[in-house]
Amino acid sequence: MPHPRSVLFNVYWAAWTSLFLAPLVVFAASGSPARPIRAATRLWARGILFGLRHLVGLTYVEEGRDRIPREPCLIVANHQSAWETLAFLILVPDVAIVAKRELIAIPVVGWFLRRSPMIIIDRANGTQALRTMIDESRAAVAAGRSVLIFPEGTRGTIGDPVQFKRGVELLYGRLGLRVLPVAVNSGLYWPSGSRTRAGTVVVSYLDALAPGLPSADFLRGTEGAIDRELDRWRPAELGLQMP
C-alpha cells in the first residue's frame, strides 16, 4: 500500500503545479519570455523541494560546492531519480539541462521546462539528437550558462554500476569546457517507480577535470569517479531493502 506521506506529497505536487497554469497562459500570450519563465520554473522546483521536506521528510545537503567552476562548465551527474532533474534547477540556477523528449510531455511542467530552456533531445533520432545536443549546448555556453547531462541516459538504482551512453565524450570534446562530476544518492529515497522516503539526499561535487583529455582519461575521471563515490552509500541501499 502507498505510504500516506507519499500520497500526500503526490496531491501537493498536483495542486502546486496547477497554480502555474495561469502564469503559463500569461507567458504564452507574452511571447514566452525566457528569463521570467526560468524564474517561474525555479519557483516551481523550490515548491516541490519544500513539499518533500515538510510532507515526506526528504531533505538534501551539498558536499564540495566550492569545486563548482565559476565559469560555464559541463556538469556530468549520475541519474537515479526525478529528484536531481528538478533540484539542479535550484542548485545551479542558470543551468541548461540535457533532457529526453518524454519530460516535456508532463502537463504544465513540461511547457515550462521546454522554455527554461532545457536542451531537449529525441534519442530515437540518433545522429540528429547528437547534433541538436551539441548545437544547443554551444548556444547555452555562449549565453554564459553551464550544461548538465545525465550520461547514463535513464534512471538506475544506486547499486547499478555507472555506465555512460555514447555521446558524452563527443559533447566534452566539442565544448572544450572543464568538467564537474557529481554523484547523488537520491535513489535511496525516491527510487524510480516507488514512493518517496524520508532521509537526506547527498549531492557530492567531485574534482573538476580540465578540457582536452583523451576519452579514456575523461571517462576515468567522470564515470569512474562517480561510481567510486556511490560506494559510500551502496551498503545503505542493502539496509533499506531488508524487511
From TrEMBL:
GO molecular function per UniProt: 1-acylglycerol-3-phosphate O-acyltransferase activity
UniProt superkingdom: Bacteria
Protein name: 1-acyl-sn-glycerol-3-phosphate acyltransferase
CDD domains assigned: LPLAT_AGPAT-like (cd07989)
Transmembrane segments annotated in the record for this chain: 12-31
Pathway: Lipid metabolism
GO BP, sorted A to Z: phosphatidic acid biosynthetic process
Keywords from the named record: Acyltransferase, Membrane, Transferase, Transmembrane, Transmembrane helix
InterPro entries: Plipid/glycerol_acylTrfase
Pfam families linked to this entry: Acyltransferase (PF01553)
Domain Phospholipid/glycerol acyltransferase: 73-187
Signal peptide: none
